[in-house]
Amino acid sequence: MSKEPTIVLVHGAFADASSWAPVTLRLLETGHTVFVPPVFNRSLVADAAYIKSFVEQIDGPVILAGHSYGGAVITVAGVAENVVGLVYVSAYALDEGESLGQLQGGFPDSDLAANLVYAPYPVEGADPGTDVSVKIDAFPAVFAAGVAEEDARVFAVSQRPLSAIAFGEPASVAAWKTKPGWGIVSSADHTINPEVERFGYKRAGLKTVIEIDAPHLVMQTNPTEVAKFITDAIADLG
Fold first, then answer.
1. Which fold has domain 6-108+170-236?
2. Entry pTM
3. All residues at 6 or more sequence positions from 181 whose CB lies less than 8 Å from its CB, including other chains
4. Considering Cα of 232, then 50, then 199, then 176, what sign does the dihedral take?
5. Cβ neighbour number for residue 8 with a 10 Å cutoff
6. Per residue in 210-232, pLDDT tens?
7. Fewer CB within 10 Å: N-end or C-end of the chain?
């Protein structure tokens, strides 16, 4: 490839761009061009459309890396013409026509469902929407296991909720059908059942899948390994 891809890191639900910070720093320090745009978590359709528009404004090839719900987002946004690869990190790799709820529902053994909070939010000109977040007192164990206690407490009170409608919206496309992909399974994940990750990655026929004995926020606990995996994926593009 004549020009090295720009790396776009896509965060998931109950988190923001700072969740990628340790990986972002390592990639920047090794000379890569990196962007970590916000995901507004209002709907899969809207979030994917925003990320697709974001990457289409980048000059040259892009490799998308999505964590958790961000995996669903890159599955749809990754059809952008300049996207050359997809990296899934503890993520949902949806099929076309499949929703988060459907994929997650096939492997329900997770600590997340019992620790969710639902709250209304206003929608101009329409009925109120419903925000879904993780109980603050459960957040460190369920979502931020392995993260320093003081950081987990901050993440818990600054989490970005996910609109409930995102759970039921089907993916309009599956970019992994036409773009190469790579995946990391967090084998100690208590947010997404690791079997969800394994199943989705296998179905997508990802080129390389590794397992890290890490919790859901593997970018925080194992940033060097995650950064290397992303740069190895770029090298694999040739």
1. Rossmann fold (3.40.50)
2. 0.96
3. 85, 86, 87, 88, 93, 201, 204, 205, 206, 207
4. negative
5. 23
6. 999 999 999 999 999 999 999 99
7. C
